[in-house]
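Posting for a labmate who doesn't have an account.
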Amino acid sequence: MAHRTTAGLASIADWAGAVFMAVSLALCVVLAGPADGATEGLDGLIANTLDDHALAAAFAGKHLEGVYADARHWSESYTSNGTLSYRDAQGEWSGDWSVRRATFCTFYQSAALNGGCFVVAQRGANCFDFYTVGPRFVAIASADDIRAGRNWTARGWYVGAKPSCPKSGRNLA
């Protein structure tokens, strides 16, 4: 019986080790993201979304204001060196912004505010729709919604210029 228990424990230990290795490998794949810099789910970029170069050009040194899908207002200034200043009804925070794999990312120095990454679609000369992306840089909204300007997370425009956003409101599906 003791031999059987030991053999059973060895089998359990082997199985647990294999599960641990599989989970570790899966986590590495998720954190690494798509290979070769590809933006999985956005092959060829969805019409009107901005690539890395266009994102940097659109936001570096700019000040935007806008609304979230729930109609809360926000304002954010982006320096050319990658820092930012964010303001909403709750206060003001500093942080950093970056561009990676056709996504625009903002992160804050306070745990009171969540950051994230977004696919950005430009709607005219002065309107940007921000769509949250998941950990593999894939937009949570569908490609059809992004093309149609629906289900955005936030919408923004340059301060001091007339917004060119569609008049149809939030465009939620």
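Reply:
Got it, the structure tokens are right above this. The longest strand covers residues 91-100.
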